[in-house]
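in:
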């Protein structure tokens, strides 16, 4: 079968697990996810690196139908898209996915920050998971100034790379402040995010100081060490066991957290790699993702009640 996006013949993607996929294909996928190679190059290189490499590569591409764990119509939540001002951002306006628990509130609030490709269905589902656990959740779409998440990750990644990155962070900061001030918020705010969103969660902790009560970055770039003393939030930091680039940042980050007297806890999850919480690809490790999420919810309940 010919892949109509790449022009490369693709094999049918079987139900492969993490154990079935060659480490070299995972490494190529990491390069692709972070925008260092395009989709065509990823598939082409995977096809020659090992027998069955193309099938492995295709299996790693997101299947978002699998990512839904909380239905849009779940009676425990109410979800809607919202628009709000974002001064200093990429357009001065932002759009996000707001999910509230059933009831009248006020609720503790949590901002859910997407990866480097905009507000895709996986991140929307994470926002619904947070709301089902009792939090007022906002998942902002950093691509809103360009029309929003385009419906696929390749185009989303390209669009996000085109944005002014400082203004994109301003959009996330404004989103966090908007959520904290929401009429349904108890004025206690937590932040979590994945990959780019994990790094942004660390950054939000330095920018917001005492205005952020708790942070849970998932495999994200460390905060700038000189800015770590500004962190007042209780931090729960999530790492994959195999994630060389991100894990290499930890010793300096931890030293800065200790020197600043910041409340923090860090966990490295055995048998995992970057992206292990994302249940739309075989990088997902169900048992470890479940533990990480349970700890996330408990952390927010402890510090945002």
């Amino acid at each position: 079968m010919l892949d109509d996006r790449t022009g490369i013949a693709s094999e049918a993607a079987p139900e492969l697990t993490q154990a079935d996929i060659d480490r070299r294909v995972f490494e190529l996928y990491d390069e692709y996810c972070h925008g260092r190679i395009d989709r065509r190059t990823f598939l082409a290189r995977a096809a020659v690196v090992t027998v069955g490499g193309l099938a492995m590569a295709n299996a790693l591409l997101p299947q978002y139908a699998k990512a839904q764990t909380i239905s849009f119509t779940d009676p425990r939540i109410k979800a809607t898209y919202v628009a709000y001002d974002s001064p200093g951002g990429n357009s001065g306006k932002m759009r996000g996915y707001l999910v509230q628990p059933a009831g009248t509130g006020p609720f503790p609030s949590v901002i859910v920050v997407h990866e480097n490709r905009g507000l895709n269905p996986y991140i929307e589902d994470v926002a619904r998971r947070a709301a089902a656990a009792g939090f007022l959740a906002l998942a902002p779409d950093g691509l809103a100034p360009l029309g929003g998440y385009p419906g696929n990750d390749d185009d989303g990644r390209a669009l996000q790379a085109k944005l002014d990155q400082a203004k994109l962070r301003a959009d996330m900061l404004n989103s966090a402040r908007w959520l904290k001030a929401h009429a349904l918020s108890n004025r206690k705010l937590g932040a979590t995010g994945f990959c780019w969103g994990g790094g942004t969660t660390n950054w939000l902790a330095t920018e917001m100081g005492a205005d952020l009560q708790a942070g849970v970055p998932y495999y994200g770039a460390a905060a700038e060490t000189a800015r770590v003393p500004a962190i007042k939030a209780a931090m729960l930091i999530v790492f994959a066991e195999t994630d060389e680039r991100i894990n290499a940042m930890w010793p300096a980050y931890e030293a800065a957290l200790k020197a600043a007297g910041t409340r923090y806890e860090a966990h490295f999850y055995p048998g995992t790699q970057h992206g292990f919480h994302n249940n739309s690809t075989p990088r997902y490790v169900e048992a470890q993702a479940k533990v990480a999420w349970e700890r996330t919810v408990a952390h927010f309940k402890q510090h945002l009640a």
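note: The chain has two domains: 1-61, 66-304.
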